[in-house]
């Protein structure tokens, strides 16, 4: 392991000078700072977070709180996590990933130690029990998601309500009058996970506004569930001709299930989705979708947190990203 003494020797300065150059606690000449930074890069030196904490400086670590609860689609969550890590490294910060369902206890453990300077919290519920503690902690935090009451918090996310509306509006423009939402797993709604609830709100509001017949179907995220929900939809009277899918693992299985039941996509049934672009484009019949911009949300969450750590007074409290719909091969005008 490269030590600060190795960096000092390589740069031709004292260890204390290296420390001052990295921490900014004392003025160092531009030439000396350049030599130190070059030595850090060449040797791959990484200051030890615990040592920095003991010295009274920041740990340069952000905690990313991602409880891997039932019903969460891990590949999408990891896209958010990868984006947070990449953005944090650009600010010379590491990321501590907390995946256990620890709730308030886990947050307090991080806040009461020198493990992390600040927190990014995911899987936000409408009435999240972690919120009172987040408001009280002496650590800056950013939520990826919007609870019902966000006063005193900094939140960022895709506008999932608008995303549900955009999908329905697209189907309505194509002439579809009966639409269905194949939603997240039931346990996600039981927890009142904010993004899932808001998709339902947007879907229902847009359908009502356009005078469409609509229905909502929570569905387990398993291929075997696709055929069951497809059969259930086709038994409805009238049966939907447009479907919105907010359940990434079901995209391809659901299209296969409809075709197994004699419906071709998009000739007989139009399908839209709310998911990352890569998922929608990779399906056998590429799916018209509203993108879940995991990379942008993660990066901007880090930027908000960096601004709070720097003491900026004008950090926006609410950042809602507008939905962007990309038309692909899975939607077409209603012909009958």
Structural class: alpha/beta
Strand content: 15-25%
Quantity of strands, as a count:
12
Low-confidence stretches: 52-56
Order of helices and strands: HHHHEHEHEHEEHEHHEHEHEHEHEE
Kindly report the average pLDDT value. 90
Helix fraction, binned, reads: 40-55%
Shape: elongated
Radius of gyration: 24 Å
Structure description:
Helix 1 (4-11) packs across helix 2 (15-23) and helix 5 (74-90) crosses helix 14 (294-309). The protein is elongated. Residues 52-56 have low confidence and may be disordered. It has helices at residues 4-11, 15-23, 30-43, 49-54, 74-90, 103-111, 131-136, 160-173, 186-190, 194-209, 223-235, 251-260, 277-282, 294-309, and strands spanning 61-65, 94-98, 118-121, 141-144, 155-158, 178-183, 213-218, 242-245, 270-275, 288-291, 318-321, 325-326. The chain has 336 residues and is an alpha/beta fold. The protein is 44% helix and 16% strand. The strands form two sheets. The protein has a six-stranded parallel beta sheet with strand order 2-1-3-4-5-11, sandwiched between helices. Strands 7-6-8-9-10-12 form a six-stranded mixed beta sheet. The protein is built from 14 helices and twelve strands. Strand 8 (242-245), helix 12 (251-260) and strand 9 (270-275) form a beta-alpha-beta unit.
């Amino acid at each position: 392991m490269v030590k600060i003494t190795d960096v000092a020797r390589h740069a031709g300065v004292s260890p204390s000078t290296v420390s001052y150059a990295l921490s900014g606690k004392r003025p160092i000449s531009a030439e000396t700072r350049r030599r130190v930074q070059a030595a850090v890069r060449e040797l791959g030196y990484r200051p030890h977070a615990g040592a920095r904490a003991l010295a009274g400086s920041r740990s340069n670590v952000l905690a990313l709180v991602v409880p891997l609860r039932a019903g969460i689609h891990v590949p999408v969550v990891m896209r958010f996590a990868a984006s947070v890590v990449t953005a944090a490294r650009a600010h010379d910060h590491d990321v501590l990933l907390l995946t256990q369902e620890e709730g308030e206890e886990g947050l307090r453990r991080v806040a009461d130690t020198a493990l992390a300077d600040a927190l990014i919290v995911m899987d936000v519920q409408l009435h999240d029990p972690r919120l009172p503690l987040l408001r009280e902690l002496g650590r800056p935090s950013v939520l990826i998601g919007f609870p019902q009451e966000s006063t005193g918090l900094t939140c960022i996310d895709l506008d999932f309500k608008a995303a549900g509306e955009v999908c329905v509006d697209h189907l309505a423009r194509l002439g579809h009058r009966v639409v269905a939402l194949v939603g997240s797993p039931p346990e996600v709604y039981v927890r009142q996970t904010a993004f899932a609830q808001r998709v339902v709100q947007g879907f229902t509001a847009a359908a009502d506004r356009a005078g469409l017949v609509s229905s909502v179907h929570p569905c387990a995220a398993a291929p075997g569930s696709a055929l069951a929900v497809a059969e259930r939809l086709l038994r409805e009277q009238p049966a939907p001709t447009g479907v919105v899918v907010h359940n990434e693992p079901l995209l391809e299985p659901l299209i296969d299930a409809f075709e197994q039941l004699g419906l071709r996509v998009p000739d007989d049934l139009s399908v839209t989705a709310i998911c990352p672009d890569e998922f929608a484009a990779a399906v056998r019949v590429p799916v018209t979708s509203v993108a879940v911009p995991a990379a942008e949300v993660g990066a901007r969450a880090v930027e908000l947190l960096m601004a709070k750590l720097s003491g900026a007074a004008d950090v926006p409290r609410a950042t809602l990203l507008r939905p962007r719909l990309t038309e692909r091969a899975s939607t077409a005008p209603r012909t009958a």
